[in-house]
Amino acid sequence: MIDLRSDTVTQPTEAMLESMREATLGDDSRDGDPTVMKLEQLAAERMGKEAGAFMPSGTMANLVAMLTHAQRGGEVLIDEGSHTLNAELGGIAAVAGLFYRGIPGRRGAMAIEALREAVRPTLRNQMGTAIIWMENTHNRAGGAALPLDHMQAVYTLARENAVPVHLDGARIFNAAAALKTEAAQVAQHADSVCFCVSKGLSAPVGSVLCGANAFIERARAFRRMVGGNMRQAGPLAAAGIVALETMVDRLVEDHRTAKRLAEGLHRIDSSLVDPREVDTNLVRVEVGKSDRRAGQWSADLKQKGILVSPCALYALRFVTHRHIGEAEIDATVGAFGELWHRT
Ligand SMILES: Cc1ncc(COP(=O)(O)O)c(C=O)c1O
Q1: What is the signed CA dihedral for 259, 141, 150, 105, rounded to 10 degrees?
Q2: Distance 52 CA to ligand 1 centre (A)
Q3: Taking the CB of residue 150, how many other CB atoms lie within 10 A of it?
Q4: Counting atoms of ligand 1 from 1, which one is nearest the CA of 138?
């Protein structure tokens, strides 16, 4: 099977497995686990923040960020296509007790004027803005990397209004590679940031939430509240350390294979995807012209040994990662072409 459903399918490397066996352990919730503390420090350095807290998942890191930044009842201004609104099962309301206002935008970047209009203080008859939220890279926008000047404009607007900014940077290292910069340059336009070591970086489990010391100290309490307090988490953190130290630089290879895939599909039919819009390792493919729904496409491709995810009624998401090379891409394009011409 050629598995293009997600970069979360990546298996740990040999070096990760080795480091997991050798990790020194402690109780993270008592005196601390030395390997977890090392990962948290390394993560904070990479993000240009004071501190970090290791979490089991990106969803939990986002949820804890909401709980830590906001009082119940405030409003989160967030791109309407964000992962948090569309794939985190409403934790924003059900657990954090927050409202949200979906802001329209382009390729994951909220329209600044719409955002300006939506920001408001808490008054006796008006719910105030609690958090402004960004996602980079942007999953539903086909892995788009938000430009740094856009992020800066959002952060400036937030600061003028004394509103904290959170960055869902699940794939921040992909964003940094696409923008040809360091992750800290991306994260500088947010008060808090989380990223996953479990996606293209190939570690088996984990995300780190980073921010100022006082913020992370409060976040640790909320992490415990939602059940994310871990004990001897050293082996997981050990794999995360290897991920940060050895797997970041190779992400450009995934971007190259994604581009190759987009170019191949574009040659089959230009309505499928515009390769110029493929910034990173996600490729969103529009199959509407075929009159077959994404679910049918994904079933037909599976018959040919290729796994992809439907991401809208007529759109598929292909994700490249370290188990996908040029041969897998060429086989995928070939199989897709056969199905397309069968239409
Ligand atoms: C942008 C974004 N944020 C958050 C998450 C959640 O991460 P996790 O699956 O570790 O909960 C994902 C997962 O795909 C994601 O793409």
Answers
A1: 140
A2: 18
A3: 19
A4: 1
Q: E-strand spans in the chain? A: 2-3, 51-55, 75-79, 99-103, 105-106, 109-110, 129-135, 165-168, 192-196, 207-211, 282-286, 306-307, 309-312, 315-319
Cβ atoms of residues 26 and 34 within 8 Å: yes
Query: Which residue has tokens 């992490």?
Result: 223
Question: What pLDDT sits at residue 28?
Answer: 85
Domains of the chain with bracketed CATH: 10-246 (3.40.640.10), 250-342 (3.90.1150.10)
Question: Is 139 touching ligand 1 by the criterion CB < 6 Å?
Answer: yes
Which residues make beta-bridge pairs with 165?
Answer: 132
pTM of the predicted structure, to 2 decimals: 0.97
Q: Whose CA is closest to atom 4 on ligand 1?
A: 58
d(CA 317, CA 283): 6
* Farthest CA pair distance, the chain: 63
Checking 293-299 for CB contacts under 8 A at 24+ apart, the result is 297/339
The pLDDT assigned to 343 comes to 59
Give the residue carrying structure tokens 């020194």.
24
DSSP bridge partners of 316 = 285, 310
Closest CA to 203 of 65, 55, 4, 61: 55
**What is the token pair recorded at 267?**
């040659």
Residues paired with 101 in a beta bridge: 77
What average pLDDT values come out for the chain (343 residues) when binned by 10 residues? 98 98 90 94 98 98 98 95 97 97 97 98 96 98 97 98 98 98 98 98 98 98 96 96 98 98 98 98 97 96 98 97 98 98 79
Token pair, residue 51, equals 């501190």
What one-character DSSP code corresponds to residue 74? -
Give Cβ neighbours of residue 139 (< 8 Å, ≥ 6 apart): 83, 87, 170, 171, 282
